[in-house]
Design a protein that fits this description.
This protein has 17 helices and twelve strands. It is an alpha/beta fold. It has three domains: 65 residues; 131 residues, 3-Layer(aba) Sandwich (Rossmann fold), CATH 3.40.50; 162 residues, NAD(P)-binding Rossmann-like Domain (Rossmann fold). Bound molecules: NADPH dihydro-nicotinamide-adenine-dinucleotide phosphate and (2Z)-2-iminopentanedioic acid (2IT).
């Protein structure tokens, strides 16, 4: 263990140099992984005041250890398409850190999936999961398989082949995957069936986001979107504001967006826009959620179809221009880096009051810095979208105790968890000299619990 060299240097210099040195090593080891480096940089910058105050985290090389995954699993996923052709995709699972519980995190099926994407998501999941207060470590996985345009049978054959390999690495006390982009209840159902067949055992705790009839939790479908809005409501109320009558713009039209729209509308907000990767719709009468659900949740349509049923609505075919729309609150709920510095400038010029990251890392660093500088209330994804994985942990608890809670019970627990994450993040920001900065506060609060657990467990 390194000796303290604080006698020669100021604490501050030592912390900054340590942070820089760790980041240089991460850059050298992962040169072609921009998203992973982006996620690591944000955490490292937030932690400098922690290292200044508690040099033990440097002495134990906690950060050096956290930025290196426990293991990266990469595998071939062969499957047969409807024309009888053999297709091959690449599967991933990155098990990042299990200091506070079994690895936990979603699976993403999207053509953009690669090592960098899965590692950034897995790394962020460590801190998010810690913030929930639940006993879950950090992981992420997925495949570059593109579900768009595939038949249900093709999706089933692909997910079965994916699970055949993944099953060797997961289990209720080992690693518990769930959904993410391109993976919803249908895909989780197919994967659960394949896992069950391979083990000849009914082990519901191996996956979360399952159907209600075979161990799924009520309110898991709604949890991420509802949780984002609960978090925003908490943040607004602490600043003498409220969601009622606020104009809200929400990107995406998938699981997170749909239930963020639903809860924001229930709390009296006017949600006027949403999108998919092709474009966005604006409906100043308020988005008709029933139409969006029919097109995007039960159906496999494009969001442009919305305007055929709602003549007052408009469609525009550039999804990132959604941030040009004047609004009080913007919730990016689609994907990483979808809101950049230019978009942030436009939102600020249009007097936006609050931003809530429903997606993982949807705002670029430059955008986040601008929001913070300009005093826009900013809810980072690790805190704001943690409701999904928090309810996944509640699903695991219900599975292991063989009981089911009502929708209201789970929803109540979710609200309490989101309030607790807000308070913890604000508390850590205050304690470490960045009062009101939820980005730093969430990163610090998430880090401390995992770091202390790692110290207690020795160098492993
Ligand atoms: P879905 O697959 O249900 O929906 C994704 C939505 O985002 C779709 O509208 C999709 O449009 C759009 N989208 C995806 N990729 C892009 C892109 N490259 N450019 C523009 N739009 C895009 O996923 P989720 O709603 O589950 O996930 C959305 C985000 O929330 C992700 O960042 C995910 O990591 C995060 N998240 C999800 C949680 C969950 O529980 N599901 C929990 C916490 C965070 P299209 O239909 O055209 O592809
Ligand atoms: O990014 C996320 O937190 C998720 N996709 C949910 C993970 C989970 O295990 O429920």
């Amino acid at each position: 263990m390194k000796a303290l060299d604080g006698k020669q240097e100021t604490k501050s210099n030592r912390a900054t140099e340590y942070a820089e040195q760790v980041f240089e090593t991460v850059k050298a080891r992962n040169p072609h992984e921009p998203e992973f480096l982006q996620a690591v940089k944000e955490i490292i910058d937030s932690l400098i005041p922690v290292f200044e105050k508690n040099p033990k985290y440097m002495d134990y090389s906690i950060l050096d250890r956290m930025v290196e995954p426990d293991r990266i699993i990469s595998f071939r996923v062969p499957w047969v398409d409807d024309l009888g052709n053999v297709q091959v995709n690449r599967g991933f699972r990155v098990q990042f850190n299990n200091a506070i519980g079994p690895y936990k995190g979603g699976l993403r099926f999207h053509p953009s999936v690669n090592n960098s994407i899965i590692k950034f998501l897995g790394f962020e999941q460590i801190f998010k999961n810690s913030l929930t207060g639940q006993p879950i470590g950090g992981a992420k996985g997925g495949s570059d398989f593109d579900p768009k345009g595939k038949s249900e049978l093709e999706i089933m054959r692909f997910t079965q082949s994916f699970m055949t390999e993944l099953s060797k690495h997961i289990g209720p006390d080992t690693d518990v995957p769930a959904g993410d982009i391109g993976v919803g209840a249908r895909e989780i159902g197919f994967m659960f069936g394949q896992f069950k067949k391979m083990r000849s055992r009914f082990e519901p705790g191996v996956l979360t986001g399952k159907g209600i009839d075979f161990g799924g939790s009520l309110a898991r479908t709604e949890a991420t979107g509802y949780g984002v809005v609960y978090f925003i409501q908490e943040m607004l109320q602490h600043n003498d504001l409220d969601l009622k009558d606020k104009t809200v713009v929400i990107s995406g039209s998938g699981n997170v967006s749909i239930y963020a729209i639903e809860k924001a509308q229930q709390l009296g907000a006017n949600v006027i826009a949403c999108s998919d990767s092709d474009g966005f719709i604006v409906d100043t009468d308020g988005i008709c959620l029933e139409t969006v659900k029919r097109l995007k949740e039960t159906g496999d349509e494009r969001i442009c179809e919305y305007v055929k049923e709602h003549s007052n609505a408009h469609y525009s075919d550039n999804c990132t221009d959604i941030w040009d729309i004047p609004c009080d609150i913007a919730l990016p709920c689609a994907t990483q880096n979808e809101l950049d510095e230019d978009a942030a400038r436009k939102l600020i010029a249009n007097n936006v009051k609050a931003i809530g990251e429903g997606a993982n890392m949807p705002c670029t660093h430059a955008a986040v810095d601008l929001f913070l500088e300009e005093g826009v209330l900013f809810a980072p994804g690790k805190a704001a979208n943690a409701g999904g994985v928090a309810v996944s942990a509640l699903e695991m608890a219900q599975n292991s105790s063989k009981i089911s809670w009502t929708f209201e019970e789970v929803d109540f627990k979710l609200q309490e968890i989101m309030k607790d994450i807000y308070q913890k993040s604000m508390g850590s920001a205050e304690e470490y000299g960045t009062s009101g900065n939820l980005v730093a506060g969430a990163n610090i609060a998430g880090f401390l619990k995992v770091a202390d657990a790692m110290i207690a467990q020795g160098v492993v």
